[in-house]
Amino acid sequence: MNPEAAPREKTGIPRNPGRHELGLSAKLLFPDRDIVERFYVPIIYTACRTCYSEMAPEEIFRKAVDGEFDQAKMQKLINGVIESGHGSTIEHIVFTFAISGVSRTLSHQLVRHRAGVAFDQQSQRYVKFKDAATMLPGTIAEADPGLRGKFEDQVEGSLDLYDELVKAGIPGEDARFVFPNATRTNLVMTANLRALIHMSGLRLCTMAQWEIRRLFQLIRHEIFQVSPFLGTFLAPKCVPLGYCDEMGNRDGHCPIRPHKDRVLDAWAEKAKAARAAGRELPVA
Ligand SMILES: Cc1cc2nc3c(=O)[nH]c(=O)nc-3n(C[C@H](O)[C@H](O)[C@H](O)COP(=O)(O)OP(=O)(O)OC[C@H]3O[C@@H](n4cnc5c(N)ncnc54)[C@H](O)[C@@H]3O)c2cc1C
């Protein structure tokens, strides 16, 4: 690190990774806006209404698609059901994304999600890379030029050695052992809406790693393009919770929602004041 470099500015919300062009992309492959508008809300609504109605699901669905139910009422029911955590109703709709140019650092985090999501990833066994691309983190791009140079030399050196190994007849599946975490990769990801909301809750949180946070900002943008209504459900987990539960935010540096410690402290204060006034606060 350059000893002359100014200390990094501390801000409330960690710097938005979207400020840097990262060269990664997330494109919604399926469904398009027409399909979402015509069928997605009706499918969720049918799942919700079936639980509370004598009507057969096929009839609810037909009426919903034919516009016989008020759109705002359908959305209100869906909102209530999602807020109540009845998540199976939103497992009936899926979104398929093409995710390109992300680092292996990101993909390793992404594929840790198991429930309601499917992945297919570019193979480092079967693909013989002629010109493997890599990701340069913003902190290193902005670091002392000597340090940045060392990083770039190391990464370039790894890719050169990969070429040499492959040219010497070493199988790609073994030569790849030299690839750095910075190596870019491509995936196809299909997730149902419940899984997508859960993943977004974790990965849009300011505690998430910058690259995966950026990816989920792009994913949210894609969902908004086809449905602003469904897009609003993709938010950091503190938004629907109403408080932050991250240990790393006990100091409250991220102000999106108050940390739960503060909420509990405020409750204890309120209970104390009530007790002093001869009342007990009701506890469910
Ligand atoms: C900020 C951050 C830091 C992280 N740091 C680390 C780290 O240092 N080391 C590390 O190893 N991982 C780390 N992770 C990964 C994390 O532990 C999870 O593996 C990852 O986020 C996947 O989430 P999930 O477990 O909710 O899985 P999902 O597959 O998305 O599961 C969705 C939900 O389904 C339920 N579920 C799924 N599978 C099961 C099951 N088998 N049994 C019971 N319930 C289940 C759970 O309620 C779960 O929350 C980190 C994640 C984040 C967001």
Polypeptide structure, described:
With 284 residues, the protein is an alpha+beta fold. It has three domains: 162 residues, Gyrase A, domain 2, CATH 3.30.1360; 45 residues; 43 residues, no CATH class. The chain is 47% helix and 11% strand. It contains twelve helices and four strands. A four-stranded antiparallel sheet has the order 1-2-4-3. α1 runs antiparallel to α2. The chain binds flavin-adenine dinucleotide (FAD). Flavin-adenine dinucleotide binds next to α8. The site of flavin-adenine dinucleotide (FAD) has 9 residues, from α8.
SSE ordering: EHHHEHEHHHEHHHHH
Strand content range: 5-15%
Low-confidence stretches: 1-5
CATH architecture of the largest domain: 2-Layer Sandwich
Number of strands: 4
CATH class bucket of the largest domain: Alpha Beta
- Order the strands across the largest sheet as they lie in space: 1-2-4-3
Question: How many DSSP helices?
Answer: 12
Integer count of domains: 3
Hetero groups in this structure are: flavin-adenine dinucleotide
User: Structural class from helices and strands?
Assistant: alpha+beta
Gyration radius (Cα, Å) is 24 Å
Task: Find the CATH topology of the largest domain.
Answer: Gyrase A, domain 2
Average of the residue pLDDT scores: 92
What characteristic shape results from the CA principal axes? flat
| Distance separating the two termini | 54 Å
Helix content: 40-55%
Main sheet, how many strands, which sense, barrel?
A: 4 strands, antiparallel
Question: What's the short story on this structure?
Answer:
This protein has 284 residues and is an alpha+beta fold.
